[in-house]
Specification:
Layout (H helix, E strand, L loop, with lengths): L1 E6 L6 H11 L3 E3 L3 E3 L8 E2 L2 H9 L3 E7 L2 E6 H10 L1 E6 L2 H10 L4 E8 L2 H11 L4 H10 L8 E4 L5 H14 L6
Helix pairs in contact: 1-7, 5-6
């Protein structure tokens, strides 16, 4: 079982690099986190407060965080299934989330990649998305810590999505980039 954890602040390129990975090899599939709340639904599995409560009660929540007025959840059943069928690409922006995913699935070989870009590049990308919450996303960008345990770090302002995907795929195939 193999998986990729893409770590980075908002607008660092997680969606774009995941798309390029999928184009390179269709086994790479974004892990669609559960989302309880409003806003963008693309890339998420929408859930309810009751379903989230049941997951919490059963101990099936690997990681959850609140942002932009919603709750985002990495659930063990969903990630387990994807690990057996594909190469999940898990998007996170908190250092503790990386550890939580790796600890929940210690038998999987995780390639941990930190995506980064200068703040002004992120700001331009955020504004172009027209989500209406640019200030909040920039605050999240500012609050995102560096990931010192990343096996691979890619500046998406310098590397094209295709180049980033190639680097990640090579690391996955060689078993490199796994954070210890």
């Amino acid at each position: 079982m193999r998986g990729v954890i893409l770590y980075g602040p908002p607008a660092s390129g997680k969606d774009t690099v995941t798309s390029a990975l999928h184009q390179l090899d269709d086994r790479y599939q974004q892990f669609r986190r559960l989302k309880v709340g409003q806003g963008r639904i693309a890339g998420y599995r929408m859930s309810s407060v009751a379903e989230l409560a049941a997951l919490r009660a059963s101990g099936s929540v690997v990681w959850e965080n609140r942002r932009y007025g919603s709750v985002y959840v990495i659930d063990a059943p969903g990630l387990r299934q994807q690990l057996h069928e594909q190469i999940p690409v898990v998007h996170v922006g908190q250092v503790n989330a990386v550890d939580a995913v790796r600890e929940a699935f210690p038998d999987a070989r995780w390639t941990v990649v930190a995506l980064t870009c200068p703040r002004n590049v992120a700001e331009r990308r955020i504004v172009e998305r027209q989500t209406g919450d640019a200030a909040e996303r920039l605050r999240a960008w500012d609050q995102t810590e560096r990931l010192p345990t990343a096996g691979l770090t890619i500046d998406t302002s310098e590397a094209s999505p295709g180049m980033a995907a190639e680097l990640i795929d090579q690391a996955v195939r060689r078993g490199e980039g796994t954070a210890e």
